[in-house]
Amino acid sequence: MFDRLFGKKGDKPKKQPPSNIEQTNAMLTKKIQDMELRIQNLDVKQKYLQNEAKEKLKAGDKAGAKRLLAKKKKLVEQIKQCEGAMAMMEEQQMIMENTGMMKGTMEAIKNANMVIKEAQKDLNVEDMENIKDDMDELKQAQAEMGDFFAEYTNADDDEVEDELAALEEEMAKQDTGALPMANKEKINKQKNNLNKDEDALNQFMFG
Predict the structure, then answer these.
(1) Are residues 46 and 108 both part of a single domain?
(2) Is 49 exposed, middle or buried (0-12, 13-18, 19+ CB in 10 A)?
(3) CA-to-CA distance for 66 and 64, rounded, in angstroms?
(4) Are residues 53 and 69 in contact, defined by beta-carbon separation less than 8 angstroms?
(5) Where does the chain have alpha helices with state H?
(6) Which residue has the higher pLDDT, 195 or 154?
(7) 85 and 30 in one domain?
(8) Quick one: 102 and 43 in the same domain?
(9) What is the 8-class DSSP label of residue 18?
(10) Residue 122's pLDDT is what?
(11) Do 116 and 129 share a domain, yes or no?
(12) Domain annotation covers residue 8
């Protein structure tokens, strides 16, 4: 019996090609199913021998009952062996599944580290500081340009205000009630032209 299970002394174990986790797990599942069927068949047989032994005793055949019980005992021992082997294979399956999960997790972690390291090769703190300095210079230049145009516009507004004040002073010297209609129209036209020039300038400067 042990020779069949473990082989005879001197027998070289046959080399089996390595299998991956999925293939081995599938093989174990098939063996566990086969073992369950064998246990069921052995259990049916030992229950049958138990009943037969009872019948022998009823018939007064004590020797026959003893012989049947001896067979039943061997079947019960086989059932225990099969149950032990099945429990071992189920435990192996659990370990294998956990190992496969951990292996996949480790591979994912390794790949993530490689991607991170590769990405960090293009990151340089000095380059980032240079970019920040360039951005600060661009913002400062933009602010100076804005101040320049704002001052230009304010200077132009001052000239317009001076011209408007001179015009009002000229109008005050005249008798506003006796002004001819032509002069009023001329003054209004000048004001309209002045407003148009101011609007055009603002449109040109600020879009």
Answers:
(1) yes
(2) buried
(3) 5
(4) yes
(5) 2-6, 21-58, 62-121, 125-173, 181-206
(6) 195
(7) yes
(8) yes
(9) P
(10) 74
(11) no
(12) no
